[in-house]
Amino acid sequence: MTHGMHSDTHPHYLDGDRNWRDTATRYALLPLRVFLGVTFIYAGLDKLTDSAFMKDAGAGSIGDMMRAVRDSSAIPAMVDLALDSPVAFGYAIAFGELAVGIGTLIGLFARLAALGGALISLSLWLTVSWASDPYYYGNDLAYLMAWLPLVLAGAPMFSVDAAFHRRRRQRTGGYR
């Protein structure tokens, strides 16, 4: 056997031989999941409780914000769609952020929740923060990139999804 090559067929941590790197790897996405979940719950609640935000017009309203970014967005047609009913769009975004945040935080349909978060972030990047110059001043692109590892990996630790997976595996005798 060549030095550095492993001939075993399963990870060491399955044998109970866990070192700090294996443990860190298992928990690596947990801080990101907590941050994004809490942030999106907060963003949704903030919109729902802000009396100025959920209006067609006026200072701080969703309608005025969408009209202000319409000409500088990457896809003005998306903004026009939101402007057909800005209050309904505001509620859709707020409830979408709540659903994404809760799903991510508790790990329920975690990949789907992360995909929803990525799509919300993508739509906000293409509309609201598209004109940020330089581009890295707009935080929606960073949120989009932060969602992608959770879209790929889901929530394998401390999640409803993991509990369902464990339970299903126990019922089938360890087979998937």
Count of alpha and pi helical runs: 8
Strand proportion = under 5%
- Percent helix: 55-70%
Point out poorly predicted stretches: none
Radius of gyration: 21 Å
The main β sheet shows up as: none
Write the layout of secondary structure elements.
Elements: H1 20-27, H2 30-49, H3 62-69, H4 76-83, H5 86-106, H6 110-127, H7 139-153, H8 160-171
Description:
The chain is mainly α and 176 residues long. It contains eight helices and no strands. Helix 2 runs antiparallel to helix 5 (86-106), helix 3 packs antiparallel against helix 4 and helix 6 runs antiparallel to helix 7 (139-153).
Notable traits:
176 residues; elongated
Quick recap:
This protein has 176 residues and is mainly alpha-helical. It contains eight helices and no strands.
